[in-house]
Specification:
The complex is a heterodimer of chains A (about 290) and B (about 350). Chain A has one domain (about 15-120, about 135-230). Chain A is about 75% helix and about 5% strand. Chain A is built from twelve helices and two strands; from the N terminus they run ααααββαααααααα. The radius of gyration of chain A is 19 Å and the shape is globular. By secondary structure, chain B is mainly α. Chain B has a domain at about 30-255. Chain B is built from 14 helices and two strands; from the N terminus they run H-H-H-H-H-E-E-H-H-H-H-H-H-H-H-H. Chain B has a two-stranded antiparallel sheet. In chain B, helix 3 packs across helix 9 (about 220-245). Chain B is globular, with a radius of gyration of 21 Å. Classes of the chains: A mainly alpha (about 290), B mainly alpha (about 350). The interface between A and B is large, with 39 and 46 residues.
Chain lengths: ~290, ~350
Amino acid sequence: MDYFVILLLQIGSAIASLVLLSIGLAVIFGMMRVINLAHGEFLMLGGYAAITAYNHGVNLWLAMMLVAPLTVGIFGAVVERLVIRHLYGRLIDTMLATWGLSLAMIGFVTVVFGNTVSGISAPLGSLSIGAYRTGAYEIFLIGIAALLLVVGWLVLRFTRHGLISRGTMQNPAMAAALGTNPSAVYAATFAVGSALSGLAGGLLAPLSGVVPTIGSAYIAKAFITVISGGAAILSGTAIASTLLGAINTLATFAFTSVLGEVALLVAAVVLLRLLPQGITGRFFRRAL
Amino acid sequence: MKAGRLALASNLAVLAAGLAVLFGLPAFAETYLIINSTIFAAFSILALSLALIWGYAGILCFGQAAFFGLGGYTYAVAAINMGETTLPALIAVLLPALFAGLLGYFMFWGRISDVYLGVITLTVSLIFYRFVNQTAGEQWNIGDAPLGGFNGIPSTPILNWPGRPGDQLAPEDIFALSVSLLLVLYLGCKFLLGTRFGRIIVAIRENETRAELLGYDVRLYKLAIFMMGGAMAGLSGLLFANSVFVSPTMFSLPVSGQIIIWIIIGGLGTLIGPVIGCIFMQILTNWLGTLSQVKGFGWIDPNLVLGVLLVIFVLLVPRGLTGLTIDFWSWLKGLASPAPTDTATARERTDP
């Protein structure tokens, strides 16, 4: 029984980390069709922002949940104005430019912080369930991931900003004719997506530590989650995270953690062969 | 025909340059330079493989490193088990081609389009990377060959003369082999693109639906060119294994990305551009590597320079060095004679 609870918690934690990893990308790719290959480095930057702020005496929670998203959000806004803006509608070119950006960020962070692992210990201590112990922080992350999804849905569904952004994504010309400014909406969306990536990077930093090259460990997982999810950014991400996170954890428990990751990637490739438009391209098509 | 003569002239020029390197370089270069040039030639074949399938067939494969690594590992494992290396070398080309066939079947028959294709190929190369990285230990031996996990196989055997096991090729011979193969493959690709098959491939890149409506089985053509790309990447891995050794980094994301940088900087949609881009970038990276040891320049990180260069090229020089040269050339011609009409320049640009 205890073992079962631990297994469930592990699955939940894997799902939550997939949601966190991919939510920023889901906003940027799902809404704007911009392939941000520097997404992993956005997460990495969030981690470094949180750790640096914490080392300078900022409260850990503030560092993770305020400093990290703000830093990366502002960085994203600058990148959007300097690079991405010129490449809208040119899918491959955005992909390449952001890949160059990712390399440059890895290089820059290596120069500034050195090629070593930095870390902070996870707060909240641990929690014992029967004979097993698990980190309370991981349970906190499950809560945060759920909260992000719910808040995201509420914003998109019920606020004026959500409506405008959805309208602009569906038909920029029509939205512009009705008096919105698509360029500003794109900029804001990119900044929000970046901020979400920064938040995720900050929150995950205590668990994984940060190195300049950590982005490459995140990027593939984030992309396959978003693409397997399909057109509906929030529910798609949630469903794909659930499916892939469960597969990952079960394979990890059955074999090794590396084979768990391999199982996740193989499952995603097979899933995309069966449902090329992603899960929400076939089911729950009207969801958000 | 003027275009025909120009194509012939450019082929002859490439042939002459290749032969000059092939026979000229060993005359004065030290072994270090020879081995480095062998690596350049191996990478150039890799660049050529993606130039063919991305530049001409429009298949953006983000995981060309998968075939590259597969070629290297297949060769190493087979050569350690068999002793003689001629057959392993053949297998090292065939297996990546077959794997490309399997993967291509999945993708092209699933009608997976550009972005998704990029992500799937990227994922596949990551699967290989993760998997091979953890293959340390006895249980991962294939026959006599330990896969060696993170360390790779440092004792990768060197090619021997066909039929004479133990009689290994010298670095100069491997250099000659690599450069000749590069030349043959370059001219072979040129020839291929001039055939009916090559023209259909380009037609599919230009407009897939129209090619399909004209009665061509698009999936089959894409699969064929994708397999050729896989075979070339495998061959490149084999040559690389002979001048360095095989390790999991062959499968890694930076390798896949590097190939794309070479092509963007050299010029997409040409064959010579990626090769030039590859050699240019390799020399630049090596130079940056030595520069970082010079006092005062230690802060320069190769990744930083590569990244910034890539962003600049995508934003400002989308047609790469080849495009830049052509523009510069027609600008010079324009200075010498009255400006050419717009249609003439347009035709020049679309000419492969």
